[in-house]
Amino acid sequence: MIKAGIVGSTGYAGEQLVWFLYKHSMVNVEFYSSHNYANKPYNEIYNNYYGYIEDICVDMETAISKLSNINVLFIAMPHGKSFEITEKALSLGVKVIDLGADFRLKSKEVYEEWYGVKHEGEELLGSAVYGLTELNREAIVKCNLLANPGCFPTATILALTPLLKNNLIDSSSIIVDAKSGVSGAGRSANIGSLFTECNESIKAYAVASHRHTPEIEQELSNASKENVMITFTPHLVPMNRGILSTCYGTLKKDVTAEELIALYREFYKRDYFIKILDGLPETRWVRGSNLCHIGIKVDKRTKRVIVVSAIDNLIKGAAGQAVQNMNIMFGLEETTGLEIIAMAP
Amino acid sequence: MIKAGIVGSTGYAGEQLVWFLYKHSMVNVEFYSSHNYANKPYNEIYNNYYGYIEDICVDMETAISKLSNINVLFIAMPHGKSFEITEKALSLGVKVIDLGADFRLKSKEVYEEWYGVKHEGEELLGSAVYGLTELNREAIVKCNLLANPGCFPTATILALTPLLKNNLIDSSSIIVDAKSGVSGAGRSANIGSLFTECNESIKAYAVASHRHTPEIEQELSNASKENVMITFTPHLVPMNRGILSTCYGTLKKDVTAEELIALYREFYKRDYFIKILDGLPETRWVRGSNLCHIGIKVDKRTKRVIVVSAIDNLIKGAAGQAVQNMNIMFGLEETTGLEIIAMAP
Amino acid sequence: MIKAGIVGSTGYAGEQLVWFLYKHSMVNVEFYSSHNYANKPYNEIYNNYYGYIEDICVDMETAISKLSNINVLFIAMPHGKSFEITEKALSLGVKVIDLGADFRLKSKEVYEEWYGVKHEGEELLGSAVYGLTELNREAIVKCNLLANPGCFPTATILALTPLLKNNLIDSSSIIVDAKSGVSGAGRSANIGSLFTECNESIKAYAVASHRHTPEIEQELSNASKENVMITFTPHLVPMNRGILSTCYGTLKKDVTAEELIALYREFYKRDYFIKILDGLPETRWVRGSNLCHIGIKVDKRTKRVIVVSAIDNLIKGAAGQAVQNMNIMFGLEETTGLEIIAMAP
Amino acid sequence: MIKAGIVGSTGYAGEQLVWFLYKHSMVNVEFYSSHNYANKPYNEIYNNYYGYIEDICVDMETAISKLSNINVLFIAMPHGKSFEITEKALSLGVKVIDLGADFRLKSKEVYEEWYGVKHEGEELLGSAVYGLTELNREAIVKCNLLANPGCFPTATILALTPLLKNNLIDSSSIIVDAKSGVSGAGRSANIGSLFTECNESIKAYAVASHRHTPEIEQELSNASKENVMITFTPHLVPMNRGILSTCYGTLKKDVTAEELIALYREFYKRDYFIKILDGLPETRWVRGSNLCHIGIKVDKRTKRVIVVSAIDNLIKGAAGQAVQNMNIMFGLEETTGLEIIAMAP
Fold this sequence. Notes:
The structure is a homotetramer.
Chain A: E1 2-7, H1 12-22, E2 27-33, H2 42-45, H3 60-65, E3 72-75, H4 83-91, E4 95-98, H5 108-115, H6 122-125, E5 129-130, H7 133-141, E6 145-147, H8 151-165, E7 175-180, H9 195-198, E8 203-204, H10 212-224, E9 231-236, E10 243-250, H11 257-267, E11 274-276, E12 292-299, E13 304-311, H12 315-329
Parallel strand pairs in A: 1-2, 1-3, 3-4, 4-6, 5-6, 7-9, 11-12
Antiparallel strand pairs in A: 7-10, 8-9, 10-13, 12-13
Helix pairs in contact in A: 1-12, 7-12, 8-10
């Protein structure tokens, strides 16, 4: 059995991780750490575990003291908080999977510019592997520090990579208009996340300034071998879960939607969790699963391609992909513990 | 492997059944029958199965022709539609689990009065077993025709039976105020079920006339050995899933909430899916699971007990309980294929 | 023109008051006071007023200094906060309409028991008038201190008073099962009010202990000339606005729903805002209005009456009724500024 | 008083029209026509009018027979249904305001291509005026046949016209990613509009093929004096009301967001219903109002401008704008009966 520890276990991504690890046949969770709920029973915070998980949340100090007992540490904390515990864990031979942003960007300078905090783990950036599983499996197999991708980047990079790898779109033409459920804002007591403030409304936010922008650009640049810059606009949608990423690019050549669908299916043919639809995705069909649904349309009149991808932001966009990466890092079947289909309605 | 057929597989209860049977380790589904979608691929109606289920829906005639290939038939159709296929299936030695109302009431007359249609399977009523699993396990083991309980009855009977069995409340004092998500109305194209007609509103409906009333009364009468009549008021709540049943009764003796909690825990001590909380249930903590959460409060000032139970109407209130009953009918572990925890948020 | 001041103008009830007073033809608002947003433009907090209200929120100290400029003070603050400013306002001849709970209960002891704070305005309790307009108009005309009713009490007392005044139900049999939208929880940054915590779920809360219980009992006791005790259970529903109160009582005599509907229509015949339906109410049909819709059913089998009432909790349950009362206190037509019909969907 | 008739009064746009006309000080509604609800009381379909509107819905034949009694006919019907009654009304000197699509496009051919039906009123196209009020007031004053704009076009054209009129963006670069509440799908009993199918999900639909595309292009071409083609992608959002249109264009020159905000404010300075924000719009702040909120951001890195506009689809996107246009056509103050502020939450 793999022994795991979770830091930040009471946030929404952390809880989703608990959900998957609880039923994972090859993992035991050794501790649940929480900043806000240390010393409280986990199932008091999340009553869905009543009768299942009897553990008491521990604080960070206790978590650090238990690092030597575990094989893998999952970190689900706000950016800027992962540096110290990551170093300690790695020094003890514990593999680290960070669901936060601290090791995703290869450039310390870009990180500091977009996140506005000092990067205190620069020496680890070289060895950190960006864990968008489908695009990076080989590196993941042998990595010790995995930077789990952000939710918007996961949906967006999966949607655009086949086009860029095949040089099918003008890399300067990319516009990404993304929509997220409210769980993306986390479990913090902010007025802006109240039911009454989010329900029955939609808004754009962080226009031209969202922190996932450089992460998407870094990976699309890798795919295209060009320096890609995109316009990225996230929106907040009144639903708990789900990301829909609507991606626009100008085609470099005449190609039909059918041809692109075939190309995408070939591109992702070994990827269990990626489904290329004939039609268009809806977030409900992936909610609760680790799947990414992708639909492709061509606007012949304007010579643009529109790729729409849907994921569950807490699963393929966070905890599910983290488990998928853990499976690879520990030599397990990639799908272990993740074979769940969306529940409708 | 158990070979199963599903009639009415594209309604919400039918689809939920598909969901559980698809991943059930001991079941193969031999056919998916649908009145409205015969000859269409199942995964076109429910895109969550894209890449998983490749079957084409069959019509009723085809379903009937395949009865001899299966061991168990699940029926998820409107009331009044189950009689013919049930008789045929039973005559071929196929066990039948009917998620509809046709075999729940022991009295033909009561059925005809409340449902307004003729009962065409009277001779089967004697052998039909009411499948509220926790209260009826022994009879379920050997039954061939299982009447799976309604959603409101499941939540309500589980909430009230311990009180009545222990003669703790006045059986003429019971009021049940229940709340259901919109999936309870089924997947029919009715104006009243439109998003825009249900969202941002709550209403009571079928006051003093809902068809689940005699079903609840039948089982509570069994429990109390008295002729119980209740006032039952269902409400429609703007959410997809979930039933919350708030049950009121006048206490016959002084008893504290703590004593009742202990009594309920003892009563349900062998029942994996029933969880007696210290606090109060919320439907989100059972959504997506086969659990029933129960909370108990005593109003000392008015000498009433308030028992609140929460289930997922499509699971413990329909398909999950059907699978639970199938497990018992076929000698499997009761929880097989049902070990799923609610996903939050 | 009536000059008004609002203390607590940035909570949901306060904002709703701003909405009605802004367009009220006979009122000028002299100041908007806010604890959390002092010195911020009102329209930055509520962007719906962008281009309409240019005022800057003031703090309590400033509000107090401006009392001599106004004719009426509206207070929309948490309980226990109204005593000091109320006394000051009254001493300056300013009429006070308190939307909070501080002057609703006639008994200091009952207030202190249920609210858990000391009552510091006992000497004002005698002159405070309980402002359930339809039942108390004469006293409202000449009052200086109006205690505006709570949201659950408004819906519930309007639903039950005709029965009690006519001695039609056993006053010890009353059970009130009420459902509220999330705005009832106010605009505070609590985890429990987050979109992700409320959406797709329903729960009961404060069972047998909600603070609106003694308020309802006080007024029902007045109506029945008996000491009424009720069982009151509030529920939280995933919608912004609306209260549905489902009220149960045991009938003392044989009476049909039709007879009761006629009786209610007679009882409320002079009351513009009370509509007795032939069918059942839904909160959406009163949302955004000052109306109360009431539907009545009789359960012949159990000899109970079920009265269901619907209001908009922020309007008839708070700010709308406050304006209705102000209109009466200042000799205006009762409906002035309140003639708004619910907007559907 | 203006005497009005409404055809299609029981759809969502029709009902919204009823709402505004009921309280309009200068209008009497002479008949409410409905295809599905002829001979039923209007307030049975929409209970919010219980106690207000006592009229019975009439059928089309009756509506036509009453044309000679009215001054203005509002048509709120599906496309292809307006031709006959429009001709009859105009021939009787009745002004016509069509909320549908039949007279919006100047080209019969374009209409027939996108809508797939024959245009049977070609001779009227020359005199029909496109009623995007703010951009077309002079023509509206004297028109007899007003084509009321679509909901997506209203939000989008208002957002982009100032840029195109000032030659600030490359007219071939425009991408419009729009989001609509479910009321945009109308009050038809379709499975796809059920609560359970829309709630907790977002999807794109009609990608590169939505019928509002040529309407937007026609008006943007007028503004830019170029032949504009756009990529337009509508999305369905789980909320009742609201459109958010996120519009992208490549800037032709260096310009800051502040400069653009100033330019927009100048452009719309005489337009009561258009509010240019410092920040970004949210649909909740315009819900229930006839306002259009617009926010502007510049992505310096990619030299694109992002203009986000928000309207209530049933008001500024349908019935409110229709009343605004009627006011102008009849010489009334443009804002008469439309001075309503969004209600929050």
